[in-house]
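Sequence only, no structure available. Ideas?
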Amino acid sequence: MTRDVVVVGGGPAGLAAAVVLGRALRSVLVVDAGEPRNARAAGVHNFLTRESLSPQDFLAAGRADAERYGVTFRTGTVSAVTGTAPEFRVELADGTTLTSRRVLVATGLADVLPEIPGLAERWGKTVLHCGHCHGYEARGSAIGVLGDQLGAFMNTLLWRQWSEDVVLFLNDALVLDPEQQRQLDAQGVRVVPGRVESFTDAGVTVAGGTVVPRTYLALHTRVEARADFLEPLGFKPVDLPLGLGTYLPVEDPTGRTSVPGLWVAGNASDARAQLTSAAAAGVTAGEALTMDLVMADAAAVA
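Reply:
I predicted one. Tokens follow.
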């Protein structure tokens, strides 16, 4: 069976697109590996009507919405996409090959943490990357910010609004200019020099063995587009500025790419997207795909 669309990734962007396509009476299969980026978070935030819902319940609700309109799901990992529109071949790691007229990639991004002991096991719990996602829950706590060259100064000022007890760890990566130091002093932010060696329940350990008690540690991660499977199409991730990571480039706001018949939506093409904006991008892509299929059908019978 050749579907109208195979959606790779069952997060907010992929699910939103699937709902739009299903309501347009298109045959849609969503392939999802079951590895959401926010799996370890306690709840989703800033998504109207779904505030504090667990990531698992959020995805289950979205999947149920899509299934109402005939969308089908398959658990698996896509290993390669080959062919051209209108007959892409979507190969899965288990050896299965699916065919579709169009492909939508909504695989999101993978976070690459700094190689500091203690971060990985606390990721999404007390190691946090987004003030707007977790700041309210961490309010009033002892918060540390890990220094880097990717905006740690501004990140420190952001986190300061949720707590009066904020420490910036320079981590041998950040050099403050006099004006930045003045602003941090005015906000009561303590600055700790030296390389960060670990983060434990006791706090942040810096070079020399000093432990600074902290409940939370905020940081930036490098983000990487999960898209090796698109290489057979000659479509590869490109670099974000300042070494922030990689993303998949799109040709226009609908998520259309340079490869005919291939769309991208959500974090995979927009590293800044939160759940709401990723879902909105999925809706936009779903509508564009629907119209693209309508025009293809009309041309076929003309």
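The chain has a mean pLDDT of 95.
Hope that gets you unstuck.
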